[in-house]
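Methods — Computational structure assignment.
A single polypeptide chain was analysed. Its primary sequence is given first, followed by the predicted tertiary structure written as structure tokens.
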Amino acid sequence: MKKLGFIINPIAGMGGSVGLKGTDGVFKKALELGAVPGAPDRARKALMELKDIKENIEVLTCSGNMGSDIALNLGFKTRTVYKQKEDISKDRDTIAAAKAMMDEKADLILFAGGDGTARDIYNATGDGVPVVGIPAGVKIHSPIYAQNPKKAGELAKLFLTGKITRTEEAEVLDIDENAFRTGKVVTNLCGYLKVPYERKYTQSSKTGSPISEKANQNTISFEIIDNMEKDVFYIIGPGTTTRPIMDNLNLPNTLLGVDVILNKKLIVSDAAEKDLLGITKCNKTKLVITPIGGQGYLFGRGNQQISPEVLRNLGKENIIVAATKQKISELHGKPFLVDTGEDSVDDMLGGYIRVITGYKESMIYRIDH
């Protein structure tokens, strides 16, 4: 019988929808702003993929909402090897739980969280046990994460059943959230963890934008600005590709957040989900978004303010995708990805979409989930 470690960071990602760009150190503020937990549901989706082999695995997990509630509810043979000390889980709980699973000789640890959670797993285990990350945080730069919860479960199943035996070392990356909230990306390499090797299940590392892309980004901005419609709200998503839009309109820009403009004037700076819901529900609105370099994600990574409900209000026809030719080239033909947390919205977004790649230049590109 295989032993599966199962850890949920239940507060992971809660800062995203309310515009806090993370949850580290701001959990209470996120609650006050109306954030709700999303990690448990994403963890459930992953564990569901293992139900047909549940007779052959023992789930080593944590008490309550850190794992046992879901594992028991799904009918798995479950053993609680760590009991969290407080109602709100802390990084020390993740570290202690992972250590306990190491002591119990877990064959694999399946965990839900963001880059901070991955860092905690690394601090507890080093590269002593293979892991699969279920993406549930705001910052998910580390390639130890699967592309979405379903693929995390599928990858864990393939490894536990011996259909995948090879592992590879993948970077554990984390960024300084305090710097992140001021618009600066300070990425740290914490170490490496072993991940079952199957590229079609895991995400790539995020890449930055080289100087050679700057001119291309500028031409894209002129194309978008020239085609802005009167009395239509424009949501400008995060990233260096969309920043020149604000720069060329002489408007302040939230590089790692979401801004809203109307008739080329700033209406909302660093908008949260509730701001976007209010705007999209009653007004004609378009969204300008760019994929994450190297990964290809359009939604579900660092822009949780643009929630499934916001996307329903918008409709796919009102989404403007902007990407430089180099960013497209670096995907090597792989599709854009979406991981909103709601299958019906992911389905709505799937298929093909027009991508602005320069001034009066565009192409058609595929979206997958």
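Note: The chain has 13 helices and 16 strands.
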